[in-house]
Each structure stands twice: as structure tokens, then as C-alpha cells.
Specification:
Blueprint (H helix, E strand, L loop, with lengths): L14 E3 L17 H11 L3 E4 L2 E5 L4 H17 L4 E4 L5 E2 L6 E2 L3 E5 L19 E5 L5 H5 L1 H6 L7 E5 L6 E6 L5 E6 L3 E3 L5 E3 H5 L5
Parallel strand pairs: 8-9
Antiparallel strand pairs: 1-3, 2-3, 4-7, 5-6, 7-8, 9-10, 10-11, 12-13
């Protein structure tokens, strides 16, 4: 079906407010951290964190099923990408310049020149994804369909948002129209053809997944 979209799906990477002496400790739970402080913490910790509205959020690893789905999605994106497009896995940070949010999607694709983060010109962050994919999970689905989707829509380069269910064969595909509205397709069989060139075949994606 087609509709104007307002919110989006999930993944199996649980988030928790970081609790440490220097970041979001109990005595400073309402402290708002600058983006520069966030970047410094990530560099020092060597771990992945999200950043939104002055809050630093630690990211836990996903389940076996989540990780297998994310791996297969990344492989399909790399195999089918058009010339001039680059596919990235879940270690690639994306920042929404319009809101300042920084996050790690399960997979991304950039078509054309890669644009970095002006606030961290030497860092690896990208700010102009053409495609973002999230693998849904119970712990993050509400955020990925709601708050995170609202942020993603403010990325001018973003043309597609794909949500992959963990519980059953289902891929949700949002595509930006020339009008600026979003077309929505809910696919439970067959395949999804992406503008980046890749095809997601649901039978292959969900075959022999771990529990």
C-alpha cells in the first residue's frame, strides 16, 4: 500500500543511558553533554554510543538472529549496489545535521560523494546517506518507528528507509517521492527492489536463521 509516512521501525540493538563517573552518572543524570564531549567520550571508550539532545546513550550488541539478518542485508547491499554507491555496515556512524542526532544504523548506503561531519572533519561520520536500514527488535522498535524516523526524514539526501522484522518475514520500505512525501510498502513475500541497485529477496533473507 501507499501512504504518507510519519514514523519508522527498529533493530535488535538495545540502548541504555550511559552510567559512568564522567557520563550520565546518577549525580549528573540531567546534565546535557555537548557534541564535542560526546566525540571525546567515544574516542576514549572505543565503544559505540548514540547522541541526542545532550544525552549520550550506550549501545549493546544484538541477538544472533539480529546479527545474521544485518549481515545478510549488508551483503545484499554490497552485491547489488550501483556504480558510485558505497555500502556500510553497522559500525558506520550517521549524523543528522538538522537535529544533531548521531546514531549507528544497521546498514547504510551513500550514492555520490561522501559528506562528513563539519563538527568532526577528521572523523568517520557520514551525513548524507541515500539509504538507511534498521533491523527491528522489541527493545527498539518504538524508537525506530517514531523518534528516529522523524530524525532520518530531515536528512535531505535520504531516499529510502528499510525496516526488517526479526520475528517473521517482513520488510517495510519507505521511499521519498519527488513531492517530498514518503511512499510506504509492506512486503511479506517476494522481493524489494531498492533505488541503490540492490534487491532484497525475502526467501533468501530469512532462510535458516538462528533462533
Amino acid at each position: 500500500m501507499t501512504r504518507t509516512a510519519g514514523r519508522a521501525p527498529l533493530r535488535d540493538v538495545r540502548r541504555a543511558t550511559l552510567a559512568s563517573v564522567s557520563i550520565a552518572s546518577p549525580s549528573r543524570s540531567h546534565h546535557r553533554y555537548s557534541y564535542e564531549e560526546y566525540l571525546a567520550y567515544e574516542r576514549d571508550s572505543g565503544l559505540k554510543h548514540e547522541y541526542e539532545d545532550g544525552e549520550i546513550l550506550a549501545m549493546a550488541g544484538g541477538s544472533r538472529r539480529h546479527n545474521a539478518l544485518a549481515s545478510r542485508i549488508s551483503a545484499a547491499l554490497e552485491l547489488g549496489r550501483r556504480s558510485g554507491c558505497v555500502a556500510f555496515q553497522s559500525d558506520q556512524k550517521v549524523r543528522v545535521l538538522a537535529t544533531g542526532k548521531a546514531t549507528y544504523p544497521d546498514a547504510t548506503v551513500v550514492c555520490g560523494p561522501i559528506e562528513g561531519d563539519p563538527a568532526d572533519p577528521g572523523g568517520p561520520t557520514i551525513t548524507n546517506p541515500s539509504l538507511v536500514v534498521e533491523v527491528l527488535s522489541p527493545s527498539t522498535e518504538e524508537d525506530d518507528r517514531g523518534n528516529k524516523w522523524q530524525h532520518y526524514q530531515l536528512i535531505p539526501s535520504l531516499q529510502e528507509y528499510v525496516l526488517v522484522s526479526q520475528s517473521h518475514a517482513r520488510v517495510e520500505h519507505y521511499r521519498r517521492l519527488s513531492s517530498g512525501a514518503w511512499e510506504y510498502r509492506d512486503v511479506v513475500a517476494g522481493s524489494v527492489q531498492l533505488a541503490t541497485g540492490a534487491t532484497i529477496d525475502l526467501a533468501s533473507l530469512y532462510a535458516d536463521l538462528p533462533a
